[in-house]
Design brief:
The complex is a heterodimer of chains A (184) and B (497). Chain A has helices at residues 6-31, 40-68; strands spanning 90-97, 100-103, 107-109, 113-120, 125-130, 136-142, 148-153, 158-164, 176-182. With 184 residues, chain A is an alpha+beta fold. Chain A folds into 2 domains: 3-68; 79-182, Immunoglobulin-like. The radius of gyration of chain A is 24 Å and the shape is elongated. The two termini of chain A are 23 Å apart. Chain B has one domain (4-495): Cytochrome c oxidase-like, subunit I domain (Cytochrome C Oxidase, Chain A), CATH 1.20.210.10. The longest helix of chain B is centred in the middle third of the chain and has 35 residues, at 230-264. Chain B starts with a strand and ends with a strand. Classes of the chains: A alpha+beta (184), B mainly alpha (497). Chains A and B meet through helix 1, helix 2, strand 5, strand 6 and strand 7 of A and helix 2, helix 8, helix 10, helix 11 and helix 12 of B.
Chain lengths: 184, 497
Amino acid sequence: MKGEHIMQEIAWQASLILMALVALGFAFVAINSGGRYEDYAPLQKRAYRLRLALFWGVVLVFGPTMIYTLVNLPYDAAHARGVRDARPAQVIQATGHLWYWELSETEIATGHPVEFRVTSADVNHGFGIYDTNMKLVAQVQAMPGYINTLRHTFDEAGTYKIMCLEYCGTVHHAMVAELTVAGR
Amino acid sequence: MTKTTCMTTTPDRGAETGVVAYLLTAAAVVLLMMVFGLLMRLEQAQLIEMGPQPFYKLMTLHGAGMVGIAGIAGAAVMWHFLRQYVALSTGILFANLALFLAGVVMILTSVLLGDFHGAWTFLFPLPGSSMGMWSTQAAALFMAGLLVIGVGFLLLHLDVARAIIGRYGSFARALGWPQLFGHDDGKAPPPTVVASTMVTIVNVIGLVVGASILAMMLVNLYVPAFRIDALLAKGMIYFFGHVFINATIYMAVIGVYEILPRYTQRPWKSNKVFLASWTASTLMVMFIFPHHLLMDFAFPKWMLIMGHIIGYMNTIPILLVTGYGALMLVYRSGIRWDMTARLLFVSLFGWAAGAMPAFIDGTISVNYVMHNTLWVPGHFHTYLLLGMLAMIFGFMYYLGKPAQDATDGMLDRMAFWAYTTGTLGFVLSFLYAGKESVARRYAAHLPEWVPYDQAGAAFAVLLISAALWFMLRFFGRLSLARRDHTRASLPYGVVAA
């Protein structure tokens, strides 16, 4: 698995685990729904204690996760690993049109930070970069009247695709461009 | 086992004509929209061939239809139970339905005759920039249709606001703030009133924002010199859209708050934790909307981070208050698992389970590689199909139940498992495709994406068949639904007084 796809794997596996835990909780209660306890008050008391423990468990697990995932946001200039590279980033102007991409350059070198300045000449588009395995590695919205700066460093050579990720009308699915990434 | 007498023998009120009309409309539209959804999956699965324009027309109708009808179905549940506590206007209930149907006709005309296919989210400036694929009039008719529907719901919520304030004095009292922030004297309003107050507050604000951007865009269609900032428009649309669709769940869950205590003969009280969670949800459902804009880097960064943080916090009330509260009620309750109980129970699972991939998608670094992939319909179909819609089906079975001790048929039980299995398979096909980077809202899919679509289509057939059975059962029991009689099965070990 490529490092760039790790986020999708984490999201998938974390979702499955969490959904399964929720399912287990519901299944446990459904299985133990019989044999009525007439006096609800003591049961409530125990359940509230367990809920408090669960609350702190959720806070302790997801609190740090929430904060940790705020480090290295795609909005920050430091996001592209290549900023440590002494060379200035390669700037590519990207403009979405109904229904094609206009790119100022399409040739990129591996390991060299690239700064896409993304906008739209008409409606909202989504600038999604797909790698050679057709996996999404980065994206940003292309909006009329705004320039969104997307920073990315390409590690592997090959032909990457730019696909539209915001619905823009009849030919939305065919709004594709290509980037050629070559080794240094 | 000790036999005890049940706490109440008050007959459960039958549905008013208006509530039945809402549910019938909801059932018909949901079924049609499900078929539209299936056709879209079949097209992506390359099992039928319709072409991009019909696909995007169906997509536009599916989105607008499902969001609107979720509002109608949720409002039916809220109205039915809330009228026990406050005096609601039947005239306004019908006015909303009339405006809804008028709006539906306008939207259908716009899409089917005018070829409008700018998606239900009508992101500015797409409705006015179609490259000749639809006319300005078609776009105007679509947006005016949404506006008419929004006005209807606004009327309904204003009537609810009037009734609640008339009975409780203020929204603050109806949300139980005196008990939340002061001494809990046990006299906080019941859960139905608290939830209805929350929904009313957020939906009135959401609908006004939605109507504002629709009005602005309608002016812009004919007077382009009236310029609109695209980012502002997007923020307003997602604020309205997020609030409205979430409010449908908060309305439908009132059915769980009312029916599950009858089935378990245990109370669902408005204690401090319950009140705190609903006040928190009132705020969070309004301030979470920037999580729809995480890939709009030009949006204020602090608001995007706020969306990320609230996304995590928002799961706590769902999991630990409503979901957990239902588990407390059911555990060792002796509940009889009829269709109502099954569907309401599984609906809370669906809501809680769907919240998991939802908050994960609201994590900025995840959203960076999963926004607008099929992960998004994956998570919202989980809590809408297996959550919200299961609540509605549970409510329908409850209304149509012939008697307290009536049992379900084999086909009912089979339909329940078909619906649960079908929905889980259907949403997992979306989520897995999202993990594999399959783009959302594509009329045509790459060959390597097709297997996920085929699996999704197969599961869709299963869940639609089950949903059809649920609806047929309800249609066959309409006269029972209107009658006042004791419906809720008593738990094992409890006998009627």
